[in-house]
Amino acid sequence: MHAYRTHTCAALTAAEVGQDVRLSGWVHRKRDHGGVLFVDLRDHYGITQVVADSDSPALPILESLRVESVVTIDGSVKARAAGTANPNLATGEIEVFARAVTVQSHAQELPMPVAGEADYPEDIRLRYRFLDLRRERLHNNIVLRSNVISSLRQRMIGQGFTEFQTPILTASSPEGARDYLVPSRVHPGKFYALPQAPQMFKQLLMVAGFDRYFQIAPCFRDEDARADRSPGEFYQLDFEMSYVTQDDVFAAIEPVLHGVFEEFADWQGKGRTVSPLPFKRIPYKESMLKYGSDKPDLRNPILITDVSEQFKGSGFGRFASMVEDGDVVRALPAPNTAEKSRKFFDDMNSWAQSEGFPGLGYATQKDGVFGGPIANNHGQDGMKAIADALGLGPNDGIFFSAGKEAQAAKLAGLARTRVAEQLELIDASRFEFCWIVDFPMFEYDEDNKKVDFSHNPFSMPQGELEALETRDPLDILAYQYDIVCNGVELSSGAIRNHRPEIMYKAFEIAGYSQADVDTNFAGMINAFKFGAPPHGGSAPGVDRIVMLLADEPNIREVIVFPMTQKAEDLMMGAPNFATPRQLKELNIRLIDQPGSAKTGVAEAVAPSAG
User: Where is 436: in which H helix or E strand?
Assistant: First the structure.
């Protein structure tokens, strides 16, 4: 017999009744029924019920153990008594009568329970992450993550992609976030950077002639945490393709994402559906108008409508004057709110103010009669025209967002989500994908009073060089696209600008000289001068994919060892101070700051002569 186990804790069924077995695992729960002890024994695979009574030599040992102690049980498989089977367990038809027990490891008193799913403070969960990972929900999430990555990898290979690894120690890149810097011991005063993304390397692979690349790529960005973004590091399905149009990129990655989401849509019996292929394509301008966001949740049936024209010269002077001054008014329905109290609408206005906006206007409606200050001033006929434009029913209210276009769109988008949540309109049983396309290449920077790139400076402008030379920069669109699922942006991507003359011209419009491009992007621009194929790609976030499939609100629930919101690893004690010897080897000294003897700013110093 094996030293530790003949079966896992999920393997035994009625077919093994009568067999002698050996199991190893953690003591998950104990239940004392007056001289009969029931122990739930847990391992990676599942749980088996172990029984010890006064006839079992194992009883006193098991009684003395704390939960989470690790034991090996020798015993025989018995069928559970009639009416006591547990249909929720794979092993629910049997139990193991313990004849002997070997204690492999004693557990001390736990800082947090493993059995059950009671919520615990983040600092305790992260400091004792190895215990947190024993809990069923989190353990299952990490297994799901592994399975999703395996599926992504096989599907990409099936689409003709080849996996390559790109460097981790590299140079700083202009990805938009702060770099993590790594000091070089052999090059005093110089630093490597951890890659924010393999962007330049994957494009150089296309220049090198590899055609279809992918990897499950680690990326490192020194940015703040939020619910759908982990601080420090994250993983993405990074891919790039040569000789492709935007449509070719979509055709390659859509079956991969659709297939993975369909494969795991029924995770833990959730029974969700996935939007059919091909995914919907929504121009950026349309998305900002209808959804108030470039990350629309298409499960939400509410649509936003521009009603600026209806308020021109209207009796509601505030909106009328704003429209005259060039502002816009956006409206969104509040379906079937006739029976809602005035408090529902006032609470929405208070919420908007708490988000930093002046407020959210509204009009109530019951049996086709409109109420509220806006309706009283705008008139019933005017309100009916707005209701007809929105396609409202006789008991649908209206919310209004007014102001500069960008701010009005932002508030309307946030309100669209909140109204749908308050009214429970979002269908949680669906995964709805879409592409956001036709992003503007440039935007006007009000702070610096100049034209600048709006999204990705390395994207190919639609119309290429001719567009850059003949059109208003603010009218030029780019071959840029985002893939969005249920309001979560999984990735940005683009058809790349692979021609040096177009790149120089695009940067010139944004106020950068040819020398600036040659200095800041030397590796890429030089490579393009030796023959570069048209190419494009994207990089859907693995963490976000798993977060959606696991139906988790926070990305840390699908990462094995996440950091805190302050990018600290409480379990391993990182970041930490370097020793004087380490700093000396790296030619770095710390400049102490006032108020703390241990807080300092690192400064690279030249090595002394001799």
Answer: strand 433-437
Q: What is the pLDDT of residues 552-589, one digit of tens each?
A: 999 999 999 999 988 999 999 999 999 999 999 999 98
Q: Chain centroid to CA 207: how far?
A: 31
C-alpha–C-alpha distance, residues 55 and 571, integer Å: 43
* Cα separation, 301 vs 285, whole angstroms: 19
User: How many whole angstroms separate alpha carbon 183 and alpha carbon 166?
Assistant: 20
DSSP state of 101: E
pLDDT at 174 over 80: no
Tokens of 295: 């990350």
DSSP string covering 345-395, please? Answer: HHHHHHHHHHTTSS--EEEEEETTEEESHHHHHH-HHHHHHHHHHHT--TT
pLDDT digit string, tens, across residues 265-317:
999 889 999 999 999 999 999 999 999 999 999 999 999 999 999 999 888 98
Is 597 exposed, middle or buried, given 0-12, 13-18 or 19+ CB atoms closer than 10 A?
Answer: exposed
**Beta 600-604 vs 191-193: how paired, if at all?**
unpaired
pLDDT bracket for residue 597 (50, 70, 90): very low
Q: What is the DSSP string of 210-259?
A: --EEEEEEEEEEB---BTTB-SEEEEEEEEEEES--HHHHHHHHHHHHHH
Rounded to whole angstroms, how far apart are CA atoms 89 and 40?
11
Q: How far is CA 562 from CA 230, 557, 572, 591, in A?
A: 7, 8, 11, 30
- In Å, how far are 173, 295, 354, 362 from 224, measured between CA atoms? 18, 20, 22, 35
Local structure of 62: helix, strand or coil = helix
Contact 154, 500 (CB under 8 A): no
Residue 384 neighbours by CB distance under 10 Å: 15
Mean pLDDT of the 8-36 span? 96
Q: Residues with Cβ < 8 Å from 579, sequence gap 6 or more?
A: none
Write the Ramachandran bin of 183: left for phi over 0, alpha for psi from -120 to 50, otherwise beta.
beta
